[in-house]
Structures are given as structure tokens and as C-alpha cells.
Amino acid sequence: MTTVALDTGVGPLLRGWREQRRMSQLELALRADSSARHISFVETGRARPSEEMVLRLAEHLDVPVRERNALLVVAGYAPRYPETRLDDPAMGALRDVVERLLRGYEPYPALVVDAMYTVVAANRGVHLLLDGVPERLLAPPLNAMRLTLHPEGLAPRILNLPEWRADLLAQMRRQIALVRSPELRALYEEVEAYPAPEGRPGTSGCGRKETDYPSPALPLRIEVGGRVLSFLSSIATFNTPMDVTVAELAIETFLPADRETAAHLHALMP
Questions:
Q1: Which residues pair with 222 in a beta bridge?
Q2: CATH no. for residue 41?
Q3: Is 88 in contact with 157 (CB distance < 8 Å)?
Q4: For position 201, what pLDDT does the model report?
Q5: Nearest-CA neighbor of 269 among 163, 129, 118, 155?
Q6: How many other CB atoms are there within 10 angstroms of residue 8's CB atom?
Q7: Which of 74, 100, 123 is the last residue of a domain?
Q8: Residues of the chain with pLDDT under 70
Q9: What is the rounded distance in angstroms from the CA atom of residue 73 to the CA atom of residue 35?
Q10: What is the pLDDT of residues 51-60, one digit of tens each?
Q11: 181, 189 in Cβ contact below 8 A?
């Protein structure tokens, strides 16, 4: 996934990350055990940062792992983090962990996506939600955003589509600002151009206000097999990843937001 132009000096790139994080040179210097003067010299190209300094600044600026590699290359150093395909034998232990985790969430839906929202693994709970979706939308590579927001995908069955769509698009915008990926922006422009849902803001698409369904977070309310199921979504990532592929994986789980949803899923999948 393309991120930054490699013909740009590392100083301006680091300054861009610092400004994006709304951090002053002095604050960054204090966090990285440096001086504001040295940070200024690095950003203007008057000083060449060491490999250790690039990594230290990237860590305190919370730069994604892929972009840390790009910063190292621009600064004249070798990439630090490998990018291993998920089907590589070296990833066998990770695949086993992910599969056990997804099975453990059953009958509740759970899936794993990469940085482009491509579904790399899913459990049987997810397949229950996909019943009735046209085969052409299920052809690999399956993309979670396309599948959810496409007018022939899950969108017609999501009762609170205006709110859910707005939340997903906002999530994508935050991700675009973080990783600066042209491919991700193209995906955003594609799904954002899908026909917007009808209905007034703040309604669930069926004439009720979202506040009619008390919940600690925005629920996904979707019709499945003639029943309305309600889920709360959570997203988890791996802590301190040392591989680009692992760093970009996200595990999304859909837990029942009410007892009726939980009981129905357990009845479908004992």
C-alpha cells in the first residue's frame, strides 16, 4: 500500500507527522530526550538524524509501522520492520491464534481485516449476516466497507443506515489522515459515492429516533432472516507489532446489544 513519496526529505516528513499530532518541537524534544534546537535542525534538513533518532521520533509521534519503514528509507537507512504475507509458514502461529479467537466468539460475528478493509478471516457468525448477499459481492477479495455500504450488500437491511454509514465514513477519514494512502482514499471515494440512505438524521430509517434504543454505543441494527438483530461493535489490534502485516490487522467483533439478539444467534448456532 503506497504511503509517502520517497523523494521528500525525512525532515519535512517528520515535521508533517508532528504537526498532524499537534505537538510542538519542544514537547517532542522532551518526549524523545532531545532538544528543540536539534528537532528544528532535523526538520529543516540542517542535521541528519541517526537511525535510532528516526525510530525514537516515530515512536513518540505514533507513526504507523509501515510509515516508519518509509521514514527510515528516506533518511538513508534500511527498513526495520518486515512485511510477511499471512500465508507464509512463519505466520502459522498467528493464523492459529486468529482462528481460535474467531471461533471463540461464535455464535457472535467476528472478522479480521487489513489496512484496506479486506477481510482476511471471518467466523460463522459473519456468514449468517451475509445470507442473501449477491455472489458477485462475495467474490474475493471481500472488502468489508464495500460489502456493508453497497446498495446491493448489507446496506438495505441496516435499519439505522444513516448513522452507521456516517460512522464508517468518519472511521475511514481518520485512517486516511493516519496512513496517507492513495488506495485507501480511492476506496473511500468509491463507497462514499454509493447512494446515500434516505431518512432524517438521527433516525434509524424506520421512523424512530436512535435514542429510542438505549445503548452505551451506537448499535448496528440489521435485519437477518426476518428478525432485527442489534450489535455493538468493537475493534482490537495487536500490541507492539514487529511486522507491517500484523500491525495493519484489526479484529472486529459484533456482540449482541440485547438479550433477544443473543438468544436468536445461540438458537441458530448451538
A1: 158, 229
A2: 1.10.260.40
A3: no
A4: 45
A5: 129
A6: 12
A7: 74
A8: 1-8, 197-215
A9: 24
A10: 999 999 999 9
A11: no
Q: Which of 74, 97, 112 is the last residue of a domain?
A: 74
CB neighbour list of residue 229: distance below 8 Å, 6 or more residues apart: 221, 222, 223, 256, 261, 264, 265
Query: 195: closest CA among 228, 241, 128, 149?
Result: 149
Domain that holds residue 187: 89-268
Domain check: are 246 and 206 in the same one? yes
Runs of H (alpha helix) within 76-181: 92-105, 124-129, 135-138, 144-149, 161-179
Does 95 lie in the same domain as 29? no
The predicted pLDDT at position 7 comes to 45
Place of cell 438524521: 201
Alpha carbons 88 and 228: distance in angstroms, whole number: 40
Q: What is the pLDDT of residue 214?
A: 53
Are 15 and 121 in the same domain? no
Write down the residue that cell numbers 519503514 correspond to. 69
* CATH code of the domain containing 257: 3.30.450
Give the whole-angstrom CA distance, residue 53 versus residue 34.
Answer: 9
Q: What is the pLDDT of residue 8?
A: 63
The pTM of the full predicted model, rounded to 2 decimals, is 0.82
Instruction: Specify the pLDDT at position 209.
Output: 46
Compute the distance between CA of residue 35 and CA of residue 32 in angstroms, rounded to an integer: 8
Q: Are 165 and 149 in contact (CB under 8 A)?
A: yes
Q: Are residues 53 and 129 in the same domain?
A: no
What pLDDT was estimated at residue 215? 60
Q: What pLDDT was estimated at residue 211? A: 44
How many structural domains are present in the chain? 2
